Amino acid sequence: MKPPSQHPRTDLFRNTVIFQLKLLADGVRDAVLIPVSMVAALIGLLRGGGDCDREFSRVVDLGRRSERWINLFGNHSPAESDHPAGTMDSILDQVETVVREQYRKGRNETDTRAAVRKALEKDSTKPPEETG
């Protein structure tokens, strides 16, 4: 979240929208991880052996990475992600920048939506070392 400005209501609205989007992403992630972790544990239990937790550990690792990517409560320092999409914070910042720019230019909803889509597509096609 950005430092407070001279417009506390605007900051509150922005932070609320971002928090709600992150809550949604976190909830979807949890809804996906529940059955996936159960299947991974079942596979390990059926297979047995010294590395029976291999699949389950991979699911937990995925959960940790996605937790850092979402950064729901801002507990993680801004990480430079190797993923072309960056982090959720970087994507939301990019969308906010494009929307504000389009608003200043007096563009309509359709133009703004197209500009956001174009910016996200352009960013996702960059090689990882160019994304920040």
What secondary-structure arrangement, pairings included, does this model have?
Layout lengths: L7 H40 L6 H17 L17 H17 L4 H16 L8
SSE ordering? HHHH
By DSSP, the count of extended strands is 0
Portion in strands: under 5%
Q: Structural class given helices, strands, pairing? A: mainly alpha
Average residue pLDDT: 82
How many helical stretches? 4
Described by the principal axes of the CA atoms, the overall outline is elongated
Separation of the first and last Cα atoms: 17 Å
Proportion in helices = 55-70%
Largest sheet: none
The residue ranges in which pLDDT falls below 50 over 5 or more consecutive positions are 128-132
Describe the structure.
The chain is 68% helix and 0% strand. It has 4 helices and no strands. It has helices at residues 8-47, 54-70, 88-104, 109-124. α3 runs antiparallel to α4. The longest helix has 40 residues, at 8-47. The protein starts with 7 loop residues before the first helix and ends in an 8-residue tail after the last helix.
